[in-house]
Design a protein that fits this description.
Elements: E1 4-9, E2 12-17, H1 23-36, H2 38-41, E3 45-51, H3 57-70, E4 74-78, H4 83-99, E5 105-109, E6 117-120, E7 123-127, E8 135-138, E9 142-148, E10 151-154, E11 169-174, E12 178-181, E13 184-185, E14 203-208, E15 211-216, H5 219-226
Parallel strand pairs: 2-3, 3-4, 5-7, 6-8, 7-9, 8-10, 9-11, 10-12
Antiparallel strand pairs: 1-2, 11-14, 12-13, 14-15
């Protein structure tokens, strides 16, 4: 049996290790496998699941870095045996990967915390939560693979100094402290309950009739909004 096998599913990869393999052997096998298969995997945004070896969070991250350092794919998240959550993440990854296929983007993996401000003239993809007290500021669109509990400013380069109201903010949990699209402010309808986990469901914030609307993701909605998004 090979030391490592890779299978595809949904928008992710299943990495299967030989029984009894050591972590050091697994790390080297991953580097070799993905280097050899670089052209095959392309440059998609994907999730990954590891099977056949017990891993700490740090070692999972090290394996992810080994994969991304050996080929051109980007890893959005490490999945566990949770079919409902896996399906949600896979759907979100497909959505973002399709939208950003021809776009430049700023890709940030990890939780935005401790008062961080993430600012870019490009679309921003965050793989993690945006904690209270933190801000994401983008002249383009914002896509968050996690919860939005802090502030998000889309369609603007310096908070609300410039405006593009065609942009969107998407998050797996939409509970912002403050949210602007261009100069249009989202009127919060309820208090943010950061840390009180709810069922993951991708939501999209966009402008309509000079107000910010938050709706559940659907293909029909995105098809309608895509015509307004300046690429």
């Amino acid at each position: 049996m090979e030391k490592v096998k890779v299978k595809g599913y949904n928008s992710g990869l299943l990495v299967i290790f030989e029984n009894g393999i050591s972590y050091e052997e697994a790390l080297e096998a991953v580097k070799e496998k993905f280097t050899q298969s670089r052209k095959f995997f392309g440059s998609s945004l994907m999730s990954v699941r590891f099977q056949g070896i017990d891993l700490t969070v740090d070692r999972e991250m090290e394996l992810c870095d080994a994969i991304t350092g050996s080929c051109d794919i980007k890893i959005a998240c490490v999945l566990e045996d949770d079919e409902e959550k896996d399906s949600t993440f896979a759907s979100a990854i497909r959505i973002v990967d399709d939208i950003l296929d021809q776009n430049d983007l700023l890709y940030y993996r990890g939780t935005v915390k401790d008062g961080q401000v993430l600012r870019s003239s490009k679309d921003i993809v965050v793989i993690g939560d945006v904690n209270p007290g933190c801000s994401i500021i983008s002249a383009g669109n914002i896509y968050i693979f996690g919860g939005l509990y802090g502030e998000a400013y889309a369609g603007t380069s310096e908070k609300i100094s410039k405006a593009d109201e065609s942009k969107i903010v998407m998050a797996l949990e939409m509970s912002p402290e403050e949210l602007y699209i261009g100069t249009v402010k989202y009127n919060l309808e309820k208090k943010s309950f950061w840390g009180n986990r709810i069922k993951l469901a991708p939501s999209v914030a966009y402008t309509e009739n000079k107000r910010v609307v938050v709706s559940p993701y659907s293909k029909e909605l995105m098809d309608r909004l895509n015509d307004r998004i300046s690429r």
